[in-house]
DUF4007 family protein (Croceitalea marina), 195 residues
Amino acid sequence: MSVFFHGSFGLNRSYMAGVLKTLIDSPSSSAEDIAKPFGFKAPFTNRYKAWLQKTGILKGKELTANGEIIFNNDSKLDTLVTQWYMHHQLTKSPINAEAWHFFIKEFLPGKSKFSRDELEQALGVKLMGHSVEHFSKGRPMNKRISRKLLDCYLQDEGLGKLGFLEVRGKNQYNVQQPREILGPWKNIQELSNTY
């Protein structure tokens, strides 16, 4: 399901870079072997492969054309170019990562502030069509997804450096306009030239 592809693992570029490097250097490694240096088991690898796919870097186990440019220029997935690319890929289509698309394209526009409760309620309404049991008001899945969204755009190991959000108080957030917006890129050459 594109709604909960991440499980309990949020977007963490350092973990993603480590998994990606092992996939490139040792493509026959098992998910268990890839996860072991991080102190996790196979689900860790599978979730971070999903993140790499949702952010447009991998297709299956292979680098995409853009993923190859990113890996060759920023194998640690650390630059703002890479972070903006990931953001655009996550949010471009509801089919790819529905909660991320909803958060950036539908929930945030027009807001200057919001609470985590407001986000959870909005996610419940948006996602309830998938499963009333999992996404209706007050369900734990809405809390998990809202936490992963907020962590993604607040924490430096996620996409926090893009500057969409700031903490205003306990479970209260301000919406900000990022200072520098990069992309989206129309083709491989444009992305390559940005590095």
Remarks:
- The radius of gyration is 17 Å.
- The chain has a mean pLDDT of 92.
